[in-house]
Automatic annotation (TrEMBL):
Coiled coil: none annotated. Residues 165-298 form the AAA+ ATPase domain. Residues 381-450 form the Chromosomal replication initiator DnaA C-terminal domain. ATP binds at G176, G178, K179, T180. Residues 1-107 are annotated as: Domain I, interacts with DnaA modulators. One of its GO terms (molecular function) is ATP binding. Oligomerizes as a right-handed, spiral filament on DNA at oriC. It comes from Pseudooceanicola albus. Keywords: ATP-binding, Cytoplasm, DNA replication, DNA-binding, Lipid-binding, Nucleotide-binding. This is Chromosomal replication initiator protein DnaA. One of its GO terms (cellular component) is plasma membrane. Domain I is involved in oligomerization and binding regulators, domain II is flexibile and of varying length in different bacteria, domain III forms the AAA+ region, while domain IV binds dsDNA. It is found in: Cytoplasm. Transmembrane segments: none annotated.
Length: 473
């Protein structure tokens, strides 16, 4: 991706986020690299990176993926004072093995904020310096629901210490579903039980970064010794090392040595080990040898529970802010992409409400979050609706679309037409075409009929509500 493309992309962002947000948050960002599906942006401070990630992360990702279709994630690096960011690199370019980088990876925020420069740290501190743990990522703040209950139970079991039962514990799932949160929670819990326990948490990218550093400084023996002496090793986003031959080789040896000594390993990834592309079979089978659990996409109830707990936490700090009825339900319905986006939306709402001193109403929510709501809008297709309705009424899809006028087919057909009209932006003629080439007046009649029945027939009203929920989830 070229600097020109990045410039163009920023112009689009400017339109979406408005002038004020653009000047403060987007304009200072530079694109450092796009590699292996990760776009790295350079921000002047860690705080800025975190803020942008939370509030505009999905928007930026959306724009980036229009230009580079393999971008799945964005990360932020901190520009060290006095250094300009490296020019944006071509995605096809492989990362030079030991290229000196002008950036600190995102994690050294702790060192930065305590004023300790990386150069002054000892070899041991540099190599094993864990990424900071987020104090808010604890078991107490983790909301458990059906989609994550197994992962939560496994994390709790591992955190309770004692005999190592599953090694490694491998947590996987889509973006922003709580993998990192659970890993930090395990680390906090273990440290609370035994403050002397050497728990090292870091991202796979940081593991690679340190490995490359050790190679460059000819400190491989130290690197090996240090990593093999930890009590608990946690590596986030392991898919990152796939295809990086020497890093994955070293990781494999570290992994084996720790397992051999009965040391707990906890890993996370965006998919199951056997689905990680370019990961050698022997490593993938080692990673699958303990307990592999996935975090499923959130459902409506879990999202509502998470929102409730976040609102409670916000209101502890800002008791003056009132959230009107229906706002959380609205957000839980409309933002189903991932929890990070949900949280970002809430943070923005609270910031806005506290600035203007107003109650958080539905209207304010829609105004303040119009960009997030737009980008989270799931584009339902007519086919999806037809399929769901056919399944609900237990009829074949072909009967729903076909010419038969039997009531047992005609009513579900009208329900499906009604939902297509309400939940998609398709025109009546277009809907008619997709229902076996029917005329738009037939669709209009069907929609009207269901609108009437909805008022008179509780069963139809229930069916519609259930179908709408299932489709919007
Ligand atoms: N069940 C939950 N309860 C409370 N907060 C949650 C829950 N799930 C996710 N979150 C919050 O959502 C945000 C994103 O979660 P987290 O960073 O753990 O996701 P992840 O699965 O590691 O994502 P990625 O794949 O991007 O690394 C965090 O702020 C986390 O606290």
């Amino acid at each position: 991706m070229t600097n020109e493309m990045w410039g163009e992309l920023k112009k689009n962002l400017r339109k979406s986020v408005g002038e004020h947000n653009y000047t403060h948050w987007i304009a200072p960002l530079e694109l450092a690299s796009v590699q292996n599906g990760v776009a790295t942006l350079a921000a002047p401070s860690a705080y800025m990176g975190t803020y942008v990630q939370r509030n505009f992360g999905d928007l930026i990702l959306g724009e980036l993926s229009q230009v580079e279709d393999n971008v799945r994630r964005i990360e932020f690096n901190v520009i060290r004072p006095g250094l300009r960011p490296a020019p944006a690199v071509n995605t096809n370019q492989a990362m030079p093995a030991a290229a000196p980088t002008e950036y600190e990876p995102a994690a050294p925020v702790a060192a930065e904020s305590t004023g300790v420069s990386a150069e002054n740290l000892s070899m041991q501190e540099r190599m094993l310096r864990p990424a900071p743990l987020d104090p808010s990522y604890t078991f107490d703040s983790f909301v458990v629901g059906k989609p994550n209950e197994l992962a939560h139970a496994a994390a709790r079991r591992v955190a309770s210490g004692g005999e190592v039962e599953f090694n490694p514990l491998f947590l996987y799932g889509g973006v922003g579903l709580g993998k990192t949160h659970l890993m930090h929670a395990i680390a906090w819990e273990m440290k609370a039980q035994d403050p002397n326990l050497n728990v090292v948490y870091l991202s796979a990218e940081q593991f690679m970064y340190r490995f490359v550093q050790a190679l460059r400084e000819k400190k491989m023996m130290d690197f090996k010794a240090l990593f093999r002496n930890v009590d608990v090793l946690m590596v986030d986003d392991v898919q990152f090392i796939a295809g990086k031959d020497s890093t994955q080789e070293e990781f494999f040896h570290t992994f084996n040595a720790l397992v051999e000594h009965n040391k707990q390993i906890i890993l996370s990834g965006d998919c199951a080990p056997n689905e990680i592309k370019q990961l050698p079979a022997r490593l993938s089978s080692r990673l699958s040898s303990g307990l592999v659990v996935d975090l499923h996409p959130t459902d409506y109830e879990l999202r509502l529970g998470i929102l409730q707990s976040k609102v409670d936490a916000f209101q502890l700090k800002h008791p003056e802010i009132v959230v009107a009825d229906g706002v959380m339900e609205f957000l839980a319905h409309r933002i189903s992409t991932n929890v990070r986006v949900l949280e970002g939306a809430l943070t923005r709402l609270f910031a806005f409400a506290s600035l203007v001193g107003r109650e958080i109403t539905l209207e304010l929510t829609q105004d303040c979050l119009s960009d997030v709501l737009r980008s989270s809008e799931r584009k339902l297709t007519i086919e999806e609706i037809q399929r769901q309705v056919a399944e609900h009424y237990n009829i074949r899809l072909s009967d729903m679309i076909g010419p038969k006028r039997l009531r047992s087919f005609a009513r579900p057909r009208q329900v499906a037409m009604y939902l297509c009209k309400k939940l998609t932006r398709r025109s009546l003629p277009e809907i008619g075409r997709r229902f076996g080439g029917r005329d738009h007046t037939t669709v209009m009649h069907g929609v009207k009929k269901i609108e009437e029945l909805r008022q008179q027939d509780a069963q139809i009203a229930d069916d519609l509500e259930m179908l709408r929920r299932a489709l919007e989830e």
